[in-house]
Specification:
InterPro entries: His_Pase_superF_clade-1, His_PPase_superfam, PGM_Phosphatase. This protein has a single domain, classed as Phosphoglycerate mutase-like (Rossmann fold). It is 32% helix and 18% strand. It is built from five helices and six strands. Helix 1 packs parallel to helix 2 and helix 4 crosses helix 5.
Length: 220
């Protein structure tokens, strides 16, 4: 059994009919389907606890969609939601805009496209990994303090910070094609630790059957 596990849970679908890259903007709430995803994830973690998992700690990004995704799990497991700003969505130059592909033809945006490896249009990947992993370690230790060896924590966050953290954990380059991220809505990326050492990365999709009808704005 690992010393501890931290589950990085992506939020559910957001009500976003204009397909805005909403980033860190406030008041983007879960859609009806997103609420169903949040309920499904709560059932997923409740089943894990019923099977013996010691899930003892829950934190979420301060953004509305993350807090709303965390709420059913908090109720199902009788846990308080700790707000964790370090797992917030990445900053992005294109935040608040829709139809991003057409925007790329506008010269005023070209300076932000010079270095896709960093990336130049937003928060550097390495900085995202650093802040998320700092939060992961702190909440991992909090879970172990509460639940002892084998304790588990859930952190509700966002696609890009989760994805680059996983790539770092797997010793892969942080640059990537956003269309090929394996981090679907309401998916769970689990990091297993033995003490300070990360020993395994696992990925599950509790809402796989709900994804066909979901909107999924890249980078959101």
């Amino acid at each position: 059994m690992p010393t501890a596990t931290v589950h990085l849970l992506r939020h559910g679908e957001v009500h976003n009919p204009d397909r805005v890259l909403y980033g860190r903007l406030p008041e983007f709430h879960l859609s009806e389907l997103g609420r169903a995803m949040a309920d499904r994830v709560a059932d997923h973690f409740a089943a894990r606890r019923a099977a013996g998992a010691r899930i003892v700690h829950l934190a979420a990004s301060p953004l509305t969609r993350a807090q709303e995704t965390a709420a059913p799990t908090a109720a199902a497991l009788d846990l308080e939601i700790v707000t964790e700003p370090r797992i917030i969505e990445a900053a992005n130059h294109f935040e608040g805009l829709s139809d991003i592909k057409s925007r790329l033809r506008e010269p005023k945006h070209w300076p932000y496209l010079l270095n896709p490896l960093r990336p130049s249009w937003g928060e550097p990947y390495a900085e995202q990994v650093a802040r998320v992993m700092a939060a992961v370690r702190e909440h991992r230790d909090a879970a172990v303090e509460i639940g002892g060896r084998g304790a588990e924590a859930i952190l509700v966050a966002h696609q890009l910070p989760i994805w680059v953290t996983r790539r770092a954990a797997e010793n892969k380059p942080l640059w990537h094609d956003p269309r090929h991220r394996e981090c679907t809505l309401a998916s769970v990326t689990s990091l297993d630790f033995e003490g300070e050492r990360l020993v395994a990365v696992r990925y599950t999709e509790p809402c796989a059957d709900l994804l066909a009808n979901a909107a999924n704005t890249p980078g959101a």
